[in-house]
Predict the structure.
Amino acid sequence: MKLLFLACLSPQTGNCTTAERIRGHIESAGHTCVLRDVADFKSPGDVAALMKREPPCEGVLAIHLYKGGQLLLGCRAPYGVIFGGTDLNEDVKDKKKLAVMEQVLKNARFAVAFSHKLKEVAELLWPTQSSKVHVHPQGVETRVAMGFDWDDFLRSAGVNAIAEDLHVFLLVCGLRRVKDPLYLLEAFSEWHAQDQSVILIIIGPKVDPVFAGEVEESLRRPTGVFLAEERSQEELHAAMRRSFALVNSSVSEGMSAVILEAMDLEVPVVARDVPGNATIVRHEDTGLLYSTPQEFVALSRRLLGDRRLAEHMVRNAKHYVAECHSSLAERKAYRRLVDLLHRVRDTDDPPLPIGHQDPELQECGKISCPYD
């Protein structure tokens, strides 16, 4: 089967990483998967034209119910959607976007939520579509660049101190407002003034150039907070592994791939207490959750002085990722879902309520995770 896969593909972002990983799962089953950036299309007509090219695409998968989904309005091929996070957490506040997402979900063969909490949000919004929504946590794959030069990385970010004397907190995110990378700026600067060994490095692509300019301007004065240029996935993982802790400051999250990657790399996580993060970070068990910048500093100070707590969280987080975010389990799930689209295309059956009536989807929707 030839499948069109639509996603936001800004380089070095979580969306891009997730899309590439899922494409690998689909192609490993022998299908052809054409991965395209939603930014390449202006309308559903553009997508329809692409799908008709020889050989034509026989099904579609899209990440983000609004950004990807809006390009599927009127789509006659069977399709499935994957919730992103900002679609259900932010875009639903816009009535026009909400109406689009409702129509997209209504005509989808299935929808994937990364967590039960996200599925519950969808069920509250669209209770009649509940049976279409299936929970499949993100899989995790980490690869660390060989020969990574930590000292060079620090220098490139503008850090002149001796690496061995530092405790580096690494905030990984695309530079856009929903990630709120400046949320901790003032509190961290005050802490750094008291303790020169703690620094915060923000690293990620300039997804929103205007906002990225604001971030750069805010970091021109000495604050103990630095901005690093984006790196390859392997180099980023190497930098994460050398850091003292991974930081998340997002206003909202679906399921943060970088948090899961930090857990797999055995790096302590200090994350903002928003629903998407609280789904995968259990406070003082698999990481730390904070609600204010002042609480972040207090918890981080505690982490610095409590090695047993850090070891406890890292050990549990590693186990959690192995139990609940297996890449192999994710691969099996998406193979089944794509097989369903294939079966629908071959039989020309009318769309049926999917879920309880479909044993294959029932099976791939079963998630046994002690943390969820």
User: Anything to note?
Assistant: The CA atoms of residues 101 and 179 lie 23 Å apart. The first strand starts at residue 2 and ends at 7. The radius of gyration is 21 Å. Residues 348-368 have pLDDT under 50 and may be disordered.
